Amino acid sequence: MRRNAPKSVVKRLPVYLRILDNLIRRDVEIISSRALSEETGFTAEQIRKDLAYFGAFGTRGTGYNTGYLREKLLKIIGLDKQTNLVVIGAGHLGKALTRYNISKNPYVKVVGIFDNSPEEIGTDIGGIIIRPMSDLEEVIKNHNVRVAMITVPADAAQDVVSGLADSGITAILNFAPTKLKVPENVYVHNADLTIELQSLIYYAMEDEKQH
Amino acid sequence: MRRNAPKSVVKRLPVYLRILDNLIRRDVEIISSRALSEETGFTAEQIRKDLAYFGAFGTRGTGYNTGYLREKLLKIIGLDKQTNLVVIGAGHLGKALTRYNISKNPYVKVVGIFDNSPEEIGTDIGGIIIRPMSDLEEVIKNHNVRVAMITVPADAAQDVVSGLADSGITAILNFAPTKLKVPENVYVHNADLTIELQSLIYYAMEDEKQH
């Protein structure tokens, strides 16, 4: 069942989770899909369809129990137990990612940051020491790491990634501005900031033309 | 015509642009939509449809002239003339974005980075000095800035954004983990790293279950 959920649905699950966190903080116990729609910007129909991929969580006519739905979503996403991850590349972005909002989820933990630059190795990034690339495989194995974030330059990314699949990495968040070739059982998500920015510029210009 | 292009098409334009840059570097002058398909991972049909939104750029039976298509895409996206942008929030991520790959496009220029933290103000980030938020409006007006990247904490983001529309900002790349309310003529793209990471963890776990 879970494997049938389209990528677009999977992408919305963390959005629902965040909204539920906010609702629970405000002591809201029950929420209708209509109210969820107002909070998320997705249609109520979309929300019902999205959640139906994973089971029946709501009660017709009343809505969803926020605490119950949150627990189910944590489980569906895989945030109900600790996920260890590694950051590969200790440039500005790698450092930022290591320190940034990742630490805010108690179940997601950066267990290593790696770089080959001698000036960087040994530097402490919020309690995590930058280690040489030669230590990567050992850390992945010892901490049962499945998720890697790649922030190395484009021309180094493919070499880095080719070794990862053998070490047990199954999901990669790629910030390197290049298309990576990976085995079929590895999932790559490209978080390409240049591309985000360029498509944004298109909209900025649209507006300029209009006025 | 341009305004009719769906978001999904606009998102692919920078991908085509990058592929064309690579092809031109390798002295490839003509490329078929089939070969473009292999390079991008999108279907040839998709590519033909995407480009058809903006005009007729290919020759049936031969393909696209890489240099010509690149120039057209630069123009369509708005990268044929300089785009100035500001980074708001000088935490690790704001600093990384200021230094990161933005500088790699000669037509995209960070003209200011802003923060209210007294320890940060005055710090030099690759030649750009962190300035107080009170200078923001002046910089936006003086440099005719349309695009802002937001990296302030979630609880500060809405306040920051509310002032931006009045200053002339029309496109926002939002890294703050919160949904922003903006006037209709402002386009917001949420580049939420927590959400990217959480949907990635879903796929890492899928794989774990499968094996």
Q: Explain this structure to me?
A:
- The structure is a homodimer of 211-residue chains.
- With 211 residues, the first copy, chain A, is α/β, with parallel strands linked by helices.
- Chain A is built from eight helices and ten strands.
- Chain A has helices spanning 7-25, 33-40, 44-52, 66-77, 92-99, 136-142, 154-167, 193-210, and strands at residues 30-31, 58-59, 63-65, 83-88, 108-114, 124-125, 128-131, 147-150, 171-174, 187-190.
- In chain A, the strands form two sheets. Chain A has a seven-stranded mixed sheet, with helices on both faces. In chain A, strands 1-3-2 form a three-stranded antiparallel sheet.
- In chain A, helix 1 (7-25) runs antiparallel to helix 4 and helix 2 (33-40) packs across helix 3 (44-52).
- Chain A starts with 6 loop residues before the first helix and ends with a helix.
- The model of chain A has no long low-confidence stretch (mean pLDDT 86).
- The interface between A and B is large, with 62 and 64 residues.
Strand order of the largest sheet of chain A: 6-7-5-4-8-9-10
Structural class of chain A: alpha/beta
CATH architecture annotation of the largest domain in chain A: 3-Layer(aba) Sandwich
Largest sheet of chain A: 7 strands, mixed
Query: Could you name the CATH class of the largest domain in chain A?
Result: Alpha Beta
Question: Count the helices of chain A. How many?
Answer: 8
H and E string of chain A: HEHHEEHEHEEEHEHEEH
Oligomer: homodimer
- Contiguous runs where pLDDT drops below 50 for at least 5 residues of chain A: none
- Which overall shape of chain A is indicated by the principal axes computed on the Cα atoms? globular
User: Between the first and last Cα atoms of chain A, what is the distance in angstroms?
Assistant: 49 Å
Give the C-alpha Rg of chain A: 20 Å
CATH level-3 fold name of the largest domain in chain A: Rossmann fold
Kindly report the name of the CATH homologous superfamily of the largest domain in chain A.
NAD(P)-binding Rossmann-like Domain
Query: Which range best describes the helical content of chain A: under 10%, 10-25%, 25-40%, 40-55%, 55-70% or over 70%?
Result: 40-55%
Overall mean confidence score, pLDDT of chain A: 86
